[in-house]
Protein backbone atom coordinates (compact mmCIF):
# COMPACT_ATOMS: atom_id res chain seq x y z
CA UNK A 1 0.00 0.00 0.00
CA UNK A 2 2.85 2.36 0.92
CA UNK A 3 4.51 1.66 -2.45
CA UNK A 4 1.31 2.51 -4.32
CA UNK A 5 0.98 5.79 -2.40
CA UNK A 6 4.59 6.63 -3.19
CA UNK A 7 4.01 5.99 -6.89
CA UNK A 8 0.94 8.23 -6.94
CA UNK A 9 2.87 10.93 -5.08
CA UNK A 10 5.68 10.82 -7.64
CA UNK A 11 3.16 11.04 -10.49
CA UNK A 12 1.45 13.99 -8.82
CA UNK A 13 4.77 15.80 -8.35
CA UNK A 14 5.74 15.20 -11.98
CA UNK A 15 2.36 16.48 -13.12
CA UNK A 16 2.75 19.64 -11.03
CA UNK A 17 6.25 20.23 -12.42
CA UNK A 18 5.33 19.68 -16.04
CA UNK A 19 1.77 20.91 -16.28
CA UNK A 20 1.34 23.71 -13.77
CA UNK A 21 1.26 26.41 -16.45
CA UNK A 22 -0.38 25.98 -19.85
CA UNK A 23 -2.14 29.29 -19.31
CA UNK A 24 -3.49 31.42 -22.13
CA UNK A 25 -1.55 34.60 -22.87
CA UNK A 26 -3.08 37.16 -25.21
CA UNK A 27 -0.96 39.29 -27.52
CA UNK A 28 -0.99 42.98 -26.73
CA UNK A 29 -4.05 44.95 -27.91
CA UNK A 30 -1.68 47.87 -28.53
CA UNK A 31 -0.32 46.10 -31.62
CA UNK A 32 -1.86 45.16 -34.96
CA UNK A 33 -2.35 41.55 -33.86
CA UNK A 34 -5.98 40.43 -34.34
CA UNK A 35 -8.13 37.39 -34.99
CA UNK A 36 -10.60 37.64 -37.86
CA UNK A 37 -13.31 39.11 -35.62
CA UNK A 38 -10.96 41.66 -34.04
CA UNK A 39 -10.36 39.81 -30.77
CA UNK A 40 -6.82 39.30 -29.51
CA UNK A 41 -4.85 36.25 -30.65
CA UNK A 42 -2.76 34.36 -28.17
CA UNK A 43 -0.88 31.25 -27.12
CA UNK A 44 -0.56 28.75 -24.29
CA UNK A 45 2.76 28.57 -22.47
CA UNK A 46 4.28 25.84 -20.34
CA UNK A 47 7.56 26.75 -18.64
CA UNK A 48 10.56 24.51 -19.17
CA UNK A 49 12.80 23.20 -16.41
CA UNK A 50 16.16 21.51 -15.89
CA UNK A 51 18.28 21.38 -19.03
CA UNK A 52 15.18 22.37 -21.04
CA UNK A 53 14.79 25.75 -19.36
CA UNK A 54 16.59 27.54 -22.22
CA UNK A 55 14.96 25.62 -25.07
CA UNK A 56 11.67 26.31 -26.85
CA UNK A 57 9.20 24.16 -28.77
CA UNK A 58 6.73 26.42 -30.59
CA UNK A 59 3.76 24.66 -32.18
CA UNK A 60 1.43 26.42 -34.62
CA UNK A 61 -2.12 25.09 -34.53
CA UNK A 62 -3.84 24.00 -37.74
CA UNK A 63 -7.36 24.35 -39.03
CA UNK A 64 -7.54 24.83 -42.79
CA UNK A 65 -8.12 28.29 -44.20
CA UNK A 66 -10.76 30.57 -45.69
CA UNK A 67 -11.04 28.71 -48.98
CA UNK A 68 -13.29 29.02 -52.00
CA UNK A 69 -13.16 29.27 -55.77
CA UNK A 70 -14.07 32.98 -55.79
CA UNK A 71 -12.90 35.99 -53.83
CA UNK A 72 -16.44 36.61 -52.59
CA UNK A 73 -16.53 33.00 -51.43
CA UNK A 74 -13.25 33.47 -49.55
CA UNK A 75 -14.76 36.44 -47.71
CA UNK A 76 -17.86 34.42 -46.88
CA UNK A 77 -15.71 31.53 -45.60
CA UNK A 78 -13.86 33.95 -43.32
CA UNK A 79 -17.16 35.44 -42.18
CA UNK A 80 -18.41 31.98 -41.19
CA UNK A 81 -15.10 31.16 -39.50
CA UNK A 82 -15.08 34.41 -37.49
CA UNK A 83 -17.62 33.10 -34.98
CA UNK A 84 -15.62 29.92 -34.26
CA UNK A 85 -12.41 29.26 -32.32
CA UNK A 86 -10.58 29.46 -35.67
CA UNK A 87 -11.55 33.10 -36.10
CA UNK A 88 -12.11 34.43 -32.61
CA UNK A 89 -10.50 34.06 -29.20
CA UNK A 90 -13.76 34.59 -27.31
CA UNK A 91 -14.29 30.89 -26.63
CA UNK A 92 -10.73 29.78 -26.02
CA UNK A 93 -10.22 28.00 -22.68
CA UNK A 94 -7.95 29.76 -20.20
CA UNK A 95 -5.68 26.72 -19.99
CA UNK A 96 -4.87 23.97 -22.47
CA UNK A 97 -2.55 20.97 -22.52
CA UNK A 98 -1.15 20.00 -25.91
CA UNK A 99 -0.83 16.22 -25.74
CA UNK A 100 -0.43 14.94 -22.16
CA UNK A 101 2.18 12.49 -23.47
CA UNK A 102 4.41 15.38 -24.52
CA UNK A 103 5.56 15.95 -20.94
CA UNK A 104 6.98 12.49 -20.29
CA UNK A 105 10.50 11.33 -21.25
CA UNK A 106 9.22 7.90 -22.25
CA UNK A 107 7.08 9.46 -24.98
CA UNK A 108 9.11 12.57 -25.82
CA UNK A 109 12.70 11.94 -24.80
CA UNK A 110 14.28 15.25 -25.85
CA UNK A 111 11.64 17.98 -25.52
CA UNK A 112 9.62 16.82 -22.49
CA UNK A 113 11.05 19.56 -20.24
CA UNK A 114 11.36 22.40 -22.76
CA UNK A 115 9.40 25.64 -22.77
CA UNK A 116 6.34 24.67 -24.80
CA UNK A 117 4.27 27.18 -26.72
CA UNK A 118 0.98 26.22 -28.36
CA UNK A 119 -0.14 28.99 -30.73
CA UNK A 120 -3.83 29.29 -31.50
CA UNK A 121 -4.74 29.85 -35.16
CA UNK A 122 -7.35 32.52 -35.81
CA UNK A 123 -6.36 34.55 -38.88
CA UNK A 124 -7.85 32.27 -41.55
CA UNK A 125 -4.98 32.61 -44.03
CA UNK A 126 -2.19 30.28 -42.90
CA UNK A 127 -0.58 32.85 -40.60
CA UNK A 128 -0.26 35.38 -43.44
CA UNK A 129 -1.68 38.85 -44.01
CA UNK A 130 -1.61 42.40 -42.70
CA UNK A 131 -4.78 44.07 -43.97
CA UNK A 132 -6.68 47.10 -42.86
CA UNK A 133 -10.17 46.29 -41.49
CA UNK A 134 -12.55 44.91 -44.12
CA UNK A 135 -16.29 45.43 -43.74
CA UNK A 136 -18.35 42.44 -44.86
CA UNK A 137 -22.05 42.02 -44.12
CA UNK A 138 -22.47 43.03 -40.47
CA UNK A 139 -18.86 42.42 -39.46
CA UNK A 140 -15.49 44.12 -39.54
CA UNK A 141 -12.90 41.47 -40.38
CA UNK A 142 -9.14 41.50 -39.92
CA UNK A 143 -6.61 39.43 -41.84
CA UNK A 144 -3.55 39.85 -39.66
CA UNK A 145 -1.61 36.56 -39.71
CA UNK A 146 1.67 38.35 -40.42
CA UNK A 147 1.11 40.82 -37.59
CA UNK A 148 0.11 38.01 -35.23
CA UNK A 149 3.33 36.11 -35.85
CA UNK A 150 5.55 39.18 -35.55
CA UNK A 151 3.92 40.04 -32.23
CA UNK A 152 4.13 36.39 -31.09
CA UNK A 153 7.90 36.36 -31.47
CA UNK A 154 8.17 39.79 -29.85
CA UNK A 155 6.07 38.66 -26.88
CA UNK A 156 8.00 35.41 -26.43
CA UNK A 157 11.22 37.40 -26.54
CA UNK A 158 10.17 40.22 -24.21
CA UNK A 159 8.29 38.14 -21.65
CA UNK A 160 9.53 34.53 -21.82
CA UNK A 161 13.20 34.68 -22.81
CA UNK A 162 13.08 33.47 -26.41
CA UNK A 163 16.12 35.53 -27.39
CA UNK A 164 18.11 34.02 -24.51
CA UNK A 165 17.40 30.45 -25.60
CA UNK A 166 19.92 27.94 -26.91
CA UNK A 167 17.58 25.94 -29.18
CA UNK A 168 14.22 26.68 -30.79
CA UNK A 169 12.12 24.16 -32.70
CA UNK A 170 9.29 25.68 -34.74
CA UNK A 171 6.59 23.16 -35.57
CA UNK A 172 2.94 22.89 -36.50
CA UNK A 173 0.37 20.59 -38.03
CA UNK A 174 -1.59 20.98 -41.28
CA UNK A 175 -2.13 24.74 -41.73
CA UNK A 176 0.32 25.20 -38.87
CA UNK A 177 2.81 22.91 -40.59
CA UNK A 178 2.60 24.99 -43.75
CA UNK A 179 3.06 28.14 -41.67
CA UNK A 180 6.13 26.58 -40.09
CA UNK A 181 7.69 26.50 -43.55
CA UNK A 182 6.68 30.11 -44.12
CA UNK A 183 8.09 31.53 -40.88
CA UNK A 184 11.44 29.76 -40.38
CA UNK A 185 13.31 32.43 -42.36
CA UNK A 186 11.83 35.26 -40.29
CA UNK A 187 12.54 33.43 -37.03
CA UNK A 188 16.11 32.63 -38.08
CA UNK A 189 16.75 36.32 -38.82
CA UNK A 190 14.95 37.40 -35.62
CA UNK A 191 17.21 35.39 -33.32
CA UNK A 192 20.93 35.52 -32.63
CA UNK A 193 22.86 33.29 -35.10
CA UNK A 194 24.27 31.37 -32.11
CA UNK A 195 20.78 30.09 -31.26
CA UNK A 196 20.04 26.81 -33.00
CA UNK A 197 16.78 27.00 -34.95
CA UNK A 198 15.13 23.87 -36.35
CA UNK A 199 11.77 23.20 -37.99
CA UNK A 200 9.44 20.19 -37.77
CA UNK A 201 6.39 20.68 -40.03
CA UNK A 202 3.75 17.96 -39.73
CA UNK A 203 1.62 17.20 -42.81
CA UNK A 204 2.78 20.31 -44.65
CA UNK A 205 3.39 18.96 -48.17
CA UNK A 206 0.68 19.43 -50.77
CA UNK A 207 1.05 18.51 -54.43
CA UNK A 208 0.51 21.18 -57.04
CA UNK A 209 -3.08 20.13 -57.78
CA UNK A 210 -5.82 22.59 -58.74
CA UNK A 211 -3.95 25.60 -57.35
CA UNK A 212 -6.51 28.24 -58.45
CA UNK A 213 -3.49 30.30 -59.49
CA UNK A 214 -5.13 33.59 -60.43
CA UNK A 215 -7.34 33.58 -57.32
CA UNK A 216 -4.38 33.12 -54.99
CA UNK A 217 -2.80 36.29 -56.33
CA UNK A 218 -6.04 38.15 -55.57
CA UNK A 219 -6.13 36.69 -52.06
CA UNK A 220 -2.53 37.78 -51.42
CA UNK A 221 -3.55 41.31 -52.45
CA UNK A 222 -6.68 41.24 -50.29
CA UNK A 223 -4.95 40.20 -47.09
CA UNK A 224 -1.91 42.47 -47.53
CA UNK A 225 -3.56 45.56 -49.04
CA UNK A 226 -1.55 44.95 -52.21
CA UNK A 227 1.73 44.58 -50.29
CA UNK A 228 2.68 41.10 -51.37
CA UNK A 229 6.22 41.59 -50.08
CA UNK A 230 4.77 40.84 -46.62
CA UNK A 231 3.98 37.25 -47.64
CA UNK A 232 6.38 34.85 -45.92
CA UNK A 233 8.94 33.57 -46.62
CA UNK A 234 10.22 36.87 -47.95
CA UNK A 235 11.96 36.90 -51.29
CA UNK A 236 9.75 34.37 -53.09
CA UNK A 237 10.61 34.83 -56.79
CA UNK A 238 7.01 34.20 -57.90
CA UNK A 239 5.24 36.64 -55.61
CA UNK A 240 4.64 39.40 -58.19
CA UNK A 241 3.76 37.03 -61.02
CA UNK A 242 -0.03 36.66 -60.90
CA UNK A 243 0.03 33.33 -62.73
CA UNK A 244 2.60 31.79 -60.40
CA UNK A 245 2.22 33.66 -57.10
CA UNK A 246 0.46 30.60 -55.64
CA UNK A 247 3.78 28.74 -55.75
CA UNK A 248 4.99 30.83 -52.81
CA UNK A 249 2.67 28.69 -50.69
CA UNK A 250 4.00 25.26 -51.69
CA UNK A 251 6.97 23.53 -50.07
CA UNK A 252 8.43 22.23 -53.34
CA UNK A 253 8.82 25.79 -54.68
CA UNK A 254 10.21 27.52 -51.58
CA UNK A 255 12.78 25.08 -50.16
CA UNK A 256 15.62 27.45 -51.09
CA UNK A 257 14.00 30.09 -48.85
CA UNK A 258 14.00 27.83 -45.77
CA UNK A 259 17.40 28.42 -44.11
CA UNK A 260 17.14 26.04 -41.16
CA UNK A 261 17.45 22.25 -40.84
CA UNK A 262 13.95 20.87 -41.23
CA UNK A 263 12.37 17.54 -40.29
CA UNK A 264 9.53 16.62 -42.64
CA UNK A 265 6.72 14.51 -41.11
CA UNK A 266 4.39 13.33 -43.85
CA UNK A 267 2.07 10.58 -45.04
CA UNK A 268 2.42 9.75 -48.71
CA UNK A 269 -1.34 9.19 -48.63
CA UNK A 270 -2.21 12.41 -46.84
CA UNK A 271 -5.82 12.09 -45.76
CA UNK A 272 -6.68 15.77 -46.14
CA UNK A 273 -5.39 15.81 -49.72
CA UNK A 274 -7.21 12.60 -50.57
CA UNK A 275 -10.52 13.88 -49.25
CA UNK A 276 -10.43 17.55 -50.12
CA UNK A 277 -8.27 17.80 -53.24
CA UNK A 278 -8.75 14.41 -54.91
CA UNK A 279 -12.35 13.67 -53.85
CA UNK A 280 -11.50 10.29 -52.36
CA UNK A 281 -14.50 10.07 -50.04
CA UNK A 282 -14.41 6.35 -49.30
CA UNK A 283 -11.89 6.46 -46.44
CA UNK A 284 -13.12 4.48 -43.45
CA UNK A 285 -13.14 5.77 -39.84
CA UNK A 286 -10.07 3.61 -39.21
CA UNK A 287 -8.20 5.27 -42.12
CA UNK A 288 -8.54 2.44 -44.60
CA UNK A 289 -9.29 2.31 -48.33
CA UNK A 290 -11.04 -1.05 -48.45
CA UNK A 291 -14.33 0.54 -49.57
CA UNK A 292 -12.80 2.50 -52.44
CA UNK A 293 -13.27 2.02 -56.17
CA UNK A 294 -10.37 1.30 -58.50
CA UNK A 295 -10.53 4.91 -59.71
CA UNK A 296 -10.28 6.24 -56.16
CA UNK A 297 -7.38 3.89 -55.45
CA UNK A 298 -5.67 5.18 -58.59
CA UNK A 299 -5.94 8.75 -57.30
CA UNK A 300 -4.28 7.63 -54.08
CA UNK A 301 -1.45 6.00 -56.03
CA UNK A 302 -0.97 9.21 -58.03
CA UNK A 303 -0.68 11.16 -54.77
CA UNK A 304 1.82 8.64 -53.43
CA UNK A 305 3.98 8.91 -56.55
CA UNK A 306 3.97 12.71 -56.62
CA UNK A 307 4.68 13.02 -52.90
CA UNK A 308 7.64 10.64 -53.07
CA UNK A 309 8.97 12.31 -56.21
CA UNK A 310 8.94 15.82 -54.74
CA UNK A 311 10.23 14.84 -51.29
CA UNK A 312 13.10 12.87 -52.80
CA UNK A 313 14.09 15.93 -54.84
CA UNK A 314 14.11 17.97 -51.64
CA UNK A 315 16.11 15.27 -49.87
CA UNK A 316 18.79 15.41 -52.57
CA UNK A 317 19.05 19.20 -52.29
CA UNK A 318 18.88 19.48 -48.49
CA UNK A 319 21.42 17.10 -46.91
CA UNK A 320 20.87 18.48 -43.40
CA UNK A 321 17.10 17.89 -43.50
CA UNK A 322 15.42 14.85 -41.97
CA UNK A 323 12.40 12.88 -43.16
CA UNK A 324 9.79 10.58 -41.68
CA UNK A 325 7.49 9.59 -44.54
CA UNK A 326 4.96 6.83 -43.94
CA UNK A 327 2.74 4.73 -46.21
CA UNK A 328 -0.45 5.03 -44.20
CA UNK A 329 -3.53 7.23 -44.48
CA UNK A 330 -3.50 10.02 -41.92
CA UNK A 331 -3.28 13.80 -41.65
CA UNK A 332 -1.30 15.14 -38.67
CA UNK A 333 0.70 12.95 -36.33
CA UNK A 334 1.45 15.27 -33.40
CA UNK A 335 -1.90 15.50 -31.56
CA UNK A 336 -2.33 11.78 -30.94
CA UNK A 337 -0.01 9.59 -28.86
CA UNK A 338 -0.74 6.56 -31.07
CA UNK A 339 0.54 8.31 -34.20
CA UNK A 340 3.35 10.24 -32.47
CA UNK A 341 5.08 7.82 -30.15
CA UNK A 342 3.73 4.26 -30.38
CA UNK A 343 4.81 1.45 -32.65
CA UNK A 344 1.55 1.49 -34.60
CA UNK A 345 3.03 4.22 -36.80
CA UNK A 346 6.67 3.42 -37.59
CA UNK A 347 8.94 3.64 -40.64
CA UNK A 348 9.54 0.93 -41.63
CA UNK A 349 6.78 -1.04 -39.94
CA UNK A 350 7.63 -2.66 -36.59
CA UNK A 351 11.01 -0.87 -36.52
CA UNK A 352 10.24 1.36 -33.55
CA UNK A 353 11.12 4.41 -35.65
CA UNK A 354 8.21 6.56 -34.51
CA UNK A 355 7.82 10.29 -35.11
CA UNK A 356 8.92 10.91 -31.52
CA UNK A 357 12.06 8.78 -31.72
CA UNK A 358 13.08 10.02 -35.16
CA UNK A 359 12.48 13.70 -34.38
CA UNK A 360 14.41 13.34 -31.12
CA UNK A 361 17.35 11.87 -33.02
CA UNK A 362 17.17 14.69 -35.57
CA UNK A 363 17.28 17.32 -32.82
CA UNK A 364 20.15 15.59 -31.00
CA UNK A 365 22.25 15.31 -34.17
CA UNK A 366 21.83 19.03 -34.83
CA UNK A 367 22.41 20.25 -31.27
CA UNK A 368 24.82 17.85 -29.55
CA UNK A 369 28.02 18.78 -31.38
CA UNK A 370 29.43 21.79 -33.20
CA UNK A 371 29.79 19.65 -36.33
CA UNK A 372 26.69 17.93 -37.69
CA UNK A 373 27.15 14.36 -38.92
CA UNK A 374 24.56 14.26 -41.68
CA UNK A 375 24.89 10.47 -41.94
CA UNK A 376 23.12 10.22 -38.57
CA UNK A 377 20.11 12.30 -39.61
CA UNK A 378 16.97 10.14 -39.98
CA UNK A 379 15.83 10.03 -43.60
CA UNK A 380 13.07 7.46 -43.35
CA UNK A 381 10.88 6.72 -46.36
CA UNK A 382 8.42 3.84 -46.29
CA UNK A 383 9.48 1.45 -49.04
CA UNK A 384 6.08 -0.24 -49.23
CA UNK A 385 2.80 0.88 -50.75
CA UNK A 386 -0.58 0.89 -49.03
CA UNK A 387 -1.72 -1.37 -47.32
CA UNK A 388 1.63 -3.03 -46.65
CA UNK A 389 2.59 -1.05 -43.55
CA UNK A 390 0.24 -3.36 -41.69
CA UNK A 391 -0.03 -1.87 -38.15
CA UNK A 392 -1.42 1.43 -39.46
CA UNK A 393 -3.20 0.40 -42.66
CA UNK A 394 -6.70 0.84 -41.23
CA UNK A 395 -7.95 -2.57 -42.31
CA UNK A 396 -8.43 -4.01 -38.85
- Tell me the helix content: 25-40%
Mean pLDDT: 92
- Rg, Cα atoms, Å: 21 Å
**Which CATH first-tier class of the largest domain would you pick?**
Alpha Beta
**Succession of helices and strands:** HEEEHEEEHEHEHHEHHEHHE
Annotation field: number of helices:
10
Distance between the termini: 40 Å
Task: Trace the largest sheet across and list its strands.
Answer: 1-2-4-3-7-8
Question: How is the CATH topology of the largest domain named?
Answer: Rossmann fold
* Share in β-strands: 15-25%
According to DSSP, the number of beta strands is: 11
Which spans have pLDDT < 50 for at least 5 consecutive residues?
4-19
Please tell me the CATH architecture of the largest domain by its name.
Answer: 3-Layer(aba) Sandwich
- Tell me the domain tally: 2
The main β sheet shows up as: 6 strands, mixed
Could you say which structural class the secondary elements and strand pairing correspond to? alpha/beta
Spatial shape = globular
Describe this structure in words.
It is globular, with a radius of gyration of 21 Å. 43% of the residues are buried. 32% of the residues lie in helices and 15% in strands. It has 396 residues and is α/β, with parallel strands linked by helices. The protein has helices at residues 2-19, 71-81, 145-160, 175-190, 213-224, 251-254, 271-276, 294-317, 337-341, 355-367, and strands at 23-26, 42-46, 55-60, 115-119, 134-136, 139-141, 167-173, 196-202, 263-270, 322-330, 379-381. It folds into two domains: 23-260, Rossmann fold (3-Layer(aba) Sandwich), CATH 3.40.50; 266-342 and 377-396, no CATH class. The longest helix is centred in the last third of the chain and has 24 residues, at 294-317. This is Pectinacetylesterase family protein. Pfam families: PAE.
Amino acid sequence: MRIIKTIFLIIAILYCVCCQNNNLYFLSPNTRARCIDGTQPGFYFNKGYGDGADKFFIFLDGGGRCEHYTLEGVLEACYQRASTILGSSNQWPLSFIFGQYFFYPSQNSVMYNWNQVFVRYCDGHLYQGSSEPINYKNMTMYFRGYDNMVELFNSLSDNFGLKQSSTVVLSGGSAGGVATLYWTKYLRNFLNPKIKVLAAPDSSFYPDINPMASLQAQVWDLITNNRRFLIQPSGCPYINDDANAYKCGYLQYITDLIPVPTFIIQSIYDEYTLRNKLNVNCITPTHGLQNCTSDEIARGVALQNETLKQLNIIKANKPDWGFWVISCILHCFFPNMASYSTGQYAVPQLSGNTVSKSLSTFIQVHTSNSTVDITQIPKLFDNVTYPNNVPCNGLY
